[in-house]
Amino acid sequence: MKRSEKRHYSIGSWVIKPGREEEFKSAWNDFAMWTADSKIGASEGVLVQDTDDPRLFYCFWPFESEEAIRRWRSDIMFRQHMMRMRAYCDSCRPSIVRLVGRV
């Protein structure tokens, strides 16, 4: 791996309340725009929707370090965006993971 390569990821799995998927996507987009504008160290964020269960979403953000993810998550605006998105959710599970292999 190259030294400058992103090695840590913030990953979330979201189960959205029935019929609230579009509202969640809009709230996530606002969150993504804030993250990009904040210059906090995240590169492109990705939101994907399960094709078999359209209420299930995953999002992931590559970061250079676990510390950068923790700084991002400690920002008051991060918490405000999370509260807005969680209003549309039955469940949410955030994780911090590290890259251990690539093909």
Structure description:
This protein has 103 residues and is of the alpha+beta class. It has a single domain (8-98), classed as Alpha-Beta Plaits (2-Layer Sandwich). It is built from three helices and four strands. The chain has a four-stranded antiparallel β-sheet. It is globular. 15% of the residues are buried.
Helix content: 25-40%
Indicate the overall shape: globular
Rg (CA only): 14 Å
Q: On the 0-100 scale, what is the average pLDDT? A: 91
Q: How many beta-strand elements?
A: 4
Strand order of the largest sheet: 2-3-1-4
Largest sheet: 4 strands, antiparallel
| CATH topology annotation | Alpha-Beta Plaits
The structural class is: alpha+beta
Low-confidence stretches: none
Strand fraction:
25-35%
- CATH architect. name: 2-Layer Sandwich
Q: Secondary-structure element order, as H and E?
A: EHEEHHE
The structural domain count equals 1
Query: How many helices does DSSP assign?
Result: 3
Q: What separation lies between the terminal Cα atoms?
A: 11 Å
List the helices and strands and how they pair.
Blueprint: E1 8-16, H1 21-38, E2 46-49, E3 56-63, H2 66-74, H3 76-86, E4 89-98
Antiparallel strand pairs: 1-3, 1-4, 2-3
Helix pairs in contact: 1-3
Give a summary of the structure in a few sentences:
The protein is an alpha+beta fold and 103 residues long. 37% of the residues lie in helices and 30% in strands. It is built from 3 helices and 4 strands.
